[in-house]
Amino acid sequence: MIKRAIEPYVRKLAKEFSVVSIMGPRQTGKTTLAKSIFYNYEYVNLEDPNVRRAAEYDGATFLKNHPAPLVIDEAQYVPELLSHIQVIVDEMPKRKGLYVITGSHQPRLREGLAQSLAGRVGICHLLPLSLAELKNSGNALDDRDDLLYKGLMPRIYDERIDPMDLYANYVATYLERDVSQIVQLRDRRQFGLFLRLLAGRVGQMLKYDALAGDVGVSAVTIKSWVSVLEASYVAFTVPCYYRNYGKRFVKAPKLYFCDTGLVCYLLGIRGPEVVARDPALGHIFENLVMLEAFKARFAKGLPPDIYFIRDQKGREVDLVVETGRDLGLYEVKSARTYSADFAANLKAVRSYIPEVSKIGVVYSGKNLLGGEVDYLNFTEVGSVFA
User: Fold this and answer.
1) Please, what's the b/e burial string for 98-111 (b: 16 or more CB within 10 A of its CB; e: otherwise)?
2) Distance from C-alpha of 266 to C-alpha of 193, rounded to nearest angstrom
3) C or N terminus of the chain, fewer CB within 10 Å?
4) Tens of pLDDT along 209-221?
5) pTM (two decimals)
C-alpha cells in the first residue's frame, strides 16, 4: 500500500470530531486508507446488498448490531443512517473518532452530513496519488508522458493494472451506476459524448452554450451534468480570481478532471508515445499540475483557494494559489526547455495586483530557483502549494 500524505490530517480529525468523513472519487483509496488507519474498528460496506438492506430496514438496530468504533464504507447508499449516528454521538459528546464514513457521491452524503452531523463531523477529501506520494513509494517520475497517460489512480501502481482497462471499467461503471443514481439519463450515449467533448476542453474556459450545441442538449442540461461530475468528484471547476478585480477579469470557470489517465482514455490516447504528439498535451499537463495543487491543500486540511486569471486583454495566469492575503501566480508549460517568455503574463498581471508574493513557472525542465521567477519541475511542485 502506498502511504498517503493526508493520513496525519485524518488522524487529527479523529481526535477532534465524533465522526470522520473521507470523501473523494471512486478507486482513490478511501477504503484502504480507512482500514489502514482504523484497523481496529469494525468495518461494514453498504455497497453489499445484504448489508445495505439491513441498514435501510432498521438503522437503529443495524448500528446496535455494529457498535462504534465503526468504519462505514459507501455511506451515500443509506444517508438516513446518519440521523441514527447523530443520536448515538450526542449521547457520548466527549468520545471522538466513533465513526469513520467514506463516500463517493457527494450530493446525498453531503446533504446528510449537513443535516444530521453538522459540527460533529470532520471532512477530508482524498484524490488520486500525488506525485510526491508516488515518488516516496519508489516509483520513477522521470517520464512525463507516461505519468500523464497512466494517471495516478493507486491500483495502477499497487496492482499493476493496465490503465486503459481500469479507465474503461471506471467510465462504464460511472455511466451505468453512479450517474443514474443522481440524475435520470434519457440517453447514456449522449452523456458519453458529453464526457469525451468535455475531456477535449480540459484546462479551457467552460462555455455551456457551445458545449450544449455540440452535444445536442440544452445549456441547462449541460450545467446539470457538470454539477453531477463535480458532485461525484469526477471533474471540478476552477473559478477566475475575482477579489477586488471583478470587472477586470472574465467570469467563466475552467474545468479539469480528477485524473489525467481518465482524460487520456476519453480522448482516445492509447499510449504514452501518443501523448507528446496530441494537440491537447499542454492542457493535460495543466490538469496534472492543477491536481497537485488541490492534493497538497487537501492533505493538510486547507481550503483549495485555487483560481486562474484571464483579464480583458487576454492575459492568462494558469494557476493562482491564495494563502491568507498572499497570492502565488504560476504559469504552466509542458515544455522541457526554459524560456524567459513563459513569465511574460505573470509579470504583467503582477504589476496590478499588489497581493502577489511569488511568481513561478511549472514546466518539464530543470529547477531554476532564486531569480525573479522560479522555474519549477512539475514533479516537485506539490510542496509549494500548501
Assistant:
1) bbbbbbbbbbbbbe
2) 9
3) N
4) 999 999 999 999 9
5) 0.93
